[in-house]
Specification:
It is built from 13 helices and 14 strands. Helix 6 links the parallel strand 4 and strand 5. By secondary structure, it is an alpha/beta fold. It is globular. Helix 2 packs parallel to helix 9. 39% of the residues lie in helices and 14% in strands.
């Protein structure tokens, strides 16, 4: 009898009890709005901002309603203008080009490599051909490009880098926290990210004026002085009255839930990586399957696992996906011609002018992706690898 996996790929761990207790306390006193505080009280949102700034070593931090809001606010805060071109990965998720469009920018896609990171040769070519002066870099599915090389290219061309770190909170490149290379780093606290408040986001920068604009955009009114991890008051002198209020604040309830998760993030990261490495070990030397290599400079936190079936026919990749699904293993396929659930690709977003991306299309045609929630045991991960290996091998052998 063929064994079937019965785990739930969308079931997260419970919120830590200390976070539940903190959330109940906020609900009991009723001061959920970040600017509604009692005398001598420090808002949970303020404490979260201070703690996250310290965690990544940034001068300033702002908590907001979502990761996508953080991305759009970052573009406005660096003074991207209406109709300005913004470079971004051809392999990303819909909130990234969505944030560019939301801020009034025009996405210009850059090819990705077989290792799922931005192609730096194509980046240089697109900078030259487009004249773009902004890059929204997506560390898609937790894979980090050579940030030293990328920043050298962008600095030489005068391109401002905003990092989308939705999948790399807690990760590093050459010892530098993800989000600290560019002028702004943006993070998500949506349910399937490394810390979970259902929805939410964080924005960091060392630029006082960028933080002042982002703070006003988030809806601070004239209460910006309460932001202990915010820009100094003088940074707001002209900005406060010139920047629109596009309300997107985080509330104290979500901040209370997030603070204990942030404190445990490094330990949680070790658990995620242990699961990733068990799947990786189980899939080694599977004929027809390529594991994405991890460079030595990358210190990752892998809450999902990706592999490719290079140059397979599309129907055969789909067959692998369906056979795995029949055995309880949920794989997202980025080669499908229509969006499914959270999964889409650059030609799915018809609000963006169609762009030829042959290299990315070839990579995505064989790309399969699997969530690894911490509710899975290490033995579960061994079983998942067994099923994937068996089904890939069966389809491959039938063709060869």
């Amino acid at each position: 009898m063929t064994r079937k996996f019965t785990g739930n790929f969308t079931q997260q761990e419970a919120i830590p009890q200390v976070g539940i207790d903190a959330a109940v306390k906020v609900m009991q006193h009723g001061r959920l709005h970040r600017y509604n505080v009692a005398q001598n009280e420090v808002a949970e949102a303020v404490l979260l901002e201070q703690e996250f700034a310290a965690y990544v070593g940034a001068q300033y931090c702002l908590s907001v309603a979502s990761g996508g809001y953080a991305l759009a606010a970052a573009l406005r805060a660096v003074e991207m203008g209406q109709g300005d071109k913004v470079l971004t990965n051809a392999f990303t998720l819909a909130p990234v080009p969505g944030a560019i469009a939301n801020a009034g920018g025009v996405p210009v896609f850059v090819e990705v490599t077989e290792n799922l990171v931005m192609d730096l040769d194509d980046l240089q070519a697109k900078i030259a051909s487009s004249g773009a002066r902004y890059l929204m870099l997506s560390h898609m599915r937790g894979h980090i490009v050579d940030m030293d090389a990328l920043m050298a290219i962008c600095d030489a061309a005068g391109v401002l880098v905003i990092e989308d770190c939705a999948h790399t909170m807690g990760a590093h490149w050459n010892g530098v926290p993800s989000g600290r290379h560019g002028i702004v780093g943006c993070y998500s606290t949506q349910t399937f990210k490394h810390i979970n408040s259902g929805e939410g986001g964080l924005l960091i920068t060392n630029d006082a004026q960028v933080m002042a604009r982002a703070t006003m955009l988030s809806g601070s009114y004239m209460l910006y002085e309460s932001h202990a991890a915010g820009a100094p008051s003088e940074a707001f002198n002209d900005i406060a009255l010139d920047t629109p209020n596009c309300s997107g604040r985080m509330d104290n309830l979500r901040a209370a839930i997030l603070r204990p998760q942030l404190a445990a993030l490094d330990a949680q990261g070790q658990k995620w990586n242990a699961r990733y490495q068990r799947v990786e070990a189980g899939l080694q030397n599977t004929t027809g399957l390529r594991i994405i290599p991890r460079p030595k400079e990358e210190d990752y936190i892998a809450s999902s696992f990706q592999f490719t079936l290079p140059d397979w026919q599309l129907d055969k990749v789909h067959t692998v996906q369906k056979r795995c699904a029949a055995r309880g293993v949920e794989l997202k396929w980025f080669g499908a011609d229509r969006p499914v659930g959270f999964t889409s690709r650059h030609d799915s977003w018809r609000y963006v002018d169609a762009q030829e991306m042959p290299q990315t299309d070839r990579v995505l045609s064989g790309l399969l992706d699997m969530r690894l929630p911490l509710t899975f045991s290490l033995e579960d991960c061994d079983f998942l690898a067994d099923i994937i290996r068996e089904e890939v091998s069966a389809v491959y052998q039938a063709e060869h």
